[in-house]
Amino acid sequence: MKRMGVIGIVLKQDGGTALAIQSLLSSFSDIIIGRMGVPDKETGVSTISVIVKGTNEQISALSGKLGKLNQVYVKSAVTSFEIE
């Protein structure tokens, strides 16, 4: 069963890390419905919200890979709403 969820990503602005995030998100594009990124130039911190629709395993795999990146902080929330 697929579920809907949100992955919140916070990162310190770094070109290399941003490219790594972009690459990971592209490789999981089949479960991504949409995303929004907001940079905070004052603090040098960016936030990205990613709306996903996939199995728990797919969503966890993406969250886990993102969380292993340097200077990247991730939190995911998956709803109990199931999609067949």
Features:
single chain, about 80 residues, alpha+beta, Alpha-Beta Plaits, about 30% helix, elongated
Question: What would your notes on this structure say?
Answer:
Strand 2 and strand 3 form a beta hairpin. A four-stranded antiparallel beta sheet has the order 2-3-1-4. The protein is an alpha+beta fold. Helices cover 30% and strands 50% of the residues. The chain has one domain: Alpha-Beta Plaits. The mean pLDDT is 94.
Using the 3D structure, state the CATH architecture.
Answer: 2-Layer Sandwich
User: How many domains make up the coordinates?
Assistant: 1
Structural class per helix/strand content?
Answer: alpha+beta
Let me know the average pLDDT: 94
User: How far do the termini sit from each other?
Assistant: 6 Å
As a percent range, the share of strand residues is over 45%
Order of helices and strands: EHEEHE
Helix content: 25-40%
How is the secondary structure organized here?
Elements: E1 2-12, H1 15-27, E2 32-40, E3 45-54, H2 56-67, E4 72-83
Antiparallel strand pairs: 1-3, 1-4, 2-3
Task: Provide a quick synopsis of the model.
The chain is α+β, with helices and mostly antiparallel strands. The protein has a single domain (2-77), classed as Alpha-Beta Plaits (2-Layer Sandwich), CATH 3.30.70.1150. The protein is built from 2 helices and 4 strands.
